[in-house]
Amino acid sequence: MQDSPRSQDLLSAELVVADAIGKLMHFWGFKRPMGRIWTLLYLSKDPLTAADLGDRLHMSSGAISMALAELEKWGAITRTWVPGERRDFFTAETSVWTMVRRVLRERELSIVRDFRGSLTTAIAALEAESPKAPSLAATYRLERLKDLERLARTGETLLSALVAGGVVDPTVLAEPKPQHPSLPQHD
């Protein structure tokens, strides 16, 4: 049975949005099909099966299955039961902020914390190795590492506030550029 022109127009509009969100998800380091699948689930008032998604997106069942597993892992979709059906159905997480916070907490915040930890270790090692009167080059390196460590700390503070759903204080971003009189300044 042929879909009505109206339902074809609706599917075309959904696919345009699905492609746009797929591109956005790809920009964030996820696979495009994940964004496309999430979009169709988000826009659907009823849960959909993997076969429904494959038909609408013209994707193989293997590609759909892999993307669904990733989306479930990130909490972007939920497997759901429909009475009288034996197939798995899926629905989308509808709170975009919940998903964004989860990614920030599990991916970005972890990376920033690791980065800050590496900087802290490097600073401690450089301070321990430096003589009482370190060279200009050693002082320069140490101050640059401290600048990066302050930036990482600021990033960690901002991400932690976002993840917690708290208030983000933008004034920490307006911190004046550190001035090191003994170091050459580059603008």
Please outline the helices and strands:
Layout: H1 5-27, H2 32-43, E1 48-49, H3 50-57, H4 61-73, E2 77-80, E3 89-92, H5 96-129, H6 136-164
Antiparallel strand pairs: 1-3, 2-3
Describe the structure.
A hairpin with an 8-residue loop joins strand 2 and strand 3. The mean pLDDT is 88. This protein folds into two domains: 5-94, Arc Repressor Mutant, subunit A (Orthogonal Bundle), CATH 1.10.10; 97-166. Helix content is 64%, strand content 5%. With 187 residues, it is mostly helical. It has helices at 5-27, 32-43, 50-57, 61-73, 96-129, 136-164; strands at 48-49, 77-80, 89-92. It is built from six helices and three strands, in the order H-H-E-H-H-E-E-H-H. Strands 1-3-2 form a three-stranded antiparallel beta sheet. The relative contact order is 0.07. The chain is elongated.
What's a quick, concise take on this entry?
The chain is mostly helical and 187 residues long.
Q: Report the average pLDDT across residues.
A: 88
Q: Tell me the strand percentage band.
A: 5-15%
At CATH's second level, what is the architecture of the largest domain?
Orthogonal Bundle
How many domains, in number, for the residues? 2
Q: Major β-sheet, in short?
A: 3 strands, antiparallel
Distance between the termini: 66 Å
Tell me the total number of β-strands.
Answer: 3
Helix-residue proportion: 55-70%
